Amino acid sequence: MIIAIHQPDYIPYPGYFYKIAKCDCFVFLDDAQYSNEGICNWNRIKTPQGELRLKVPVKQTFGDTIQEVTTRDYLGWKQKHLKTLKSNYSKAKFFDEIYADLENILIPEYKNIAEMNIAIIKQTCEKFGISKRFEHSSSLDITTRREERVIDICSALGGDVYFSGNGASVYQVEDHFLKRGIKLQYTNYHSIIYKQCWGEFLPNLSIIDYLFNNGYEWDTLKKQMQE
After folding, report:
1. Comparing C-alpha atoms, which of 153, 169, 221 is closest to residue 13?
2. pLDDT tens digits, 107-165
């Protein structure tokens, strides 16, 4: 069984869904320490002026895990994000469908930012027709860190292949995985090109940009990723 692991990012880029599609079981690393350098609370969209960052205001203290971080909904950020999306994508081909789906999943209250992000990701997978086994690292009661933690998660779930992001290659050692009966495999994802609004193409934006312009067309997306 192929295992992939990633923190629950906010409306992540297409490569995130490629990683999900390539595995049998996807683990949301929701009990990792929250970092302001991560993208759990922001992502990028496209406007007539170029790239724009959508950022979620959060309440957190140093050392909090992602599932302990809450969103500051009283600031009205959800309505602001939706208004920004409407302003910039209202003329996109699939705007009505995608906007309605996003509004329905975004507006409800969530216990924490992990729960919200996971709900958005799962809905997007369902609309794409991507059916996978999903797990939360917080439910596995694993306390090791970094490479050892990844190996322990794979082992606990019965995985024999770990599908990893390339960035982890700086600290992961293949032999350590093999000694536990796990094959280490790195992603070959590359930026895809698709129809966008507003002139010159910008790569690796939030999946929202793809959806507004192309709808839930996963087969076309998958084919380009494989090529």
Report:
1. 221
2. 999 999 999 999 999 999 999 999 999 999 999 999 998 899 999 999 999 999 999 98
pLDDT at 33: 95
Q: What domains sit in the chain, N to C, each tagged with a CATH number?
A: 2-226 (3.40.50)
User: Interior CA angle at 171 toward 170 and 175, to 5°?
Assistant: 110
> What one-character DSSP code corresponds to residue 140?
S
Token pair belonging to 169: 């290659």
As given in the structure block, the two tokens for residue 216 are 């839930």
What does the alpha-carbon distance between residue 163 and residue 4 come to, in Å, rounded to a whole number? 5
**DSSP conformation letters of 26-66:** EEE-TTSBP-TTSSSSEEEEEETTEEEEEE--EE--TT-BG
Closest listed residue to residue 117, CA positions, set 46, 4, 21, 12: 12
